Amino acid sequence: MRILFITSSRIGDAVLSTGLLDHLIRTYPQARIVVACGPVAEGLFARMPNRAWTIVLRRDRLRSHWFRMWREVAGRRWDIVVDLRGSAFAWTIRAGRRHVVKGGRNPEHRVRHLGALFGLEPPPLPVAWFNGADRARAAALLPGEGPWIGLGPTANWDRKVWAPEKFVALYRALTAPGAPLEGARAAILGGPGEMERAMAAPVLAALGEKAVDLVGSLALPEVAAVLARCALFVGNDSGLMHLSAATGTPTLGLFGPSHVEQYAPAGRRTAVAVAPGSPGLDSMPGLTVEAALQAAEGLLATKVPA
């Protein structure tokens, strides 16, 4: 059985699609699945079961990436084609069944929107795939028996970024004597590139020896393993936030200009702290440390669903 699964270019949206992929893997355990995604999301699927290969869609001005993919897949007949980009591509190749996301803004959460393609209610939650070597790397990077807090002070848009000094204040409140994560150290995570490193730099400087710098230095399966090792992750609306939720780690997402009803972290233990006036473009500065702390403490106090 052959399945072609066309997902997003961005890490966050690609993570949100992994629940649907996991459903297909469990439903058709003998299937061979080809995943098409953007370059930055490629690593999400490196450890995925039943993956035949990954097609990396590198966009160009002439949109020739679609033609390149067509040449790669058109010679086969596909049992199922899933197109989460809402393109016409699924109708240009031979397929038994096609599931294509409709274009336009949908007010539902993205996970629910995707689950509806297969009539799944409740929709399957995102998953994260990593292996024993990734776990070993994470254990070496975050050593010891004490707890770790993952912090994601970066994002792909500066208006979604909470102030560095607020991340530092929240970390200190959560790790103070008598606090829920007393004595915990911080793992600072972010994507590659100078912009993300600049966003994370003030937090790293303020926390000094209490923090480990993991910004832009790990493959995505290693990032997932690091997140799975954390007692809590707090981050801006970003791919890291969605990946953390997919690992099952208690995840607090910080929201300002984003539509929280569509892109809240989806996982077994998640919460959000939403700025007043959200989704206003300049709302993020209104999110207080006190509001984020209350959300984090409430999240940590909740029991894991059975």
Automatic annotation (TrEMBL):
<protein>
    <submittedName>
        <fullName>Glycosyltransferase family 9 protein</fullName>
    </submittedName>
</protein>
<dbReference type="GO" id="GO:0005829">
    <property type="term" value="C:cytosol"/>
</dbReference>
<dbReference type="InterPro" id="IPR051199">
    <property type="entry name" value="LPS_LOS_Heptosyltrfase"/>
</dbReference>
<keyword id="KW-0808">Transferase</keyword>
<dbReference type="InterPro" id="IPR002201">
    <property type="entry name" value="Glyco_trans_9"/>
</dbReference>
<keyword id="KW-0328">Glycosyltransferase</keyword>
<dbReference type="Pfam" id="PF01075">
    <property type="entry name" value="Glyco_transf_9"/>
</dbReference>
<dbReference type="GO" id="GO:0009244">
    <property type="term" value="P:lipopolysaccharide core region biosynthetic process"/>
</dbReference>
<dbReference type="GO" id="GO:0008713">
    <property type="term" value="F:ADP-heptose-lipopolysaccharide heptosyltransferase activity"/>
</dbReference>
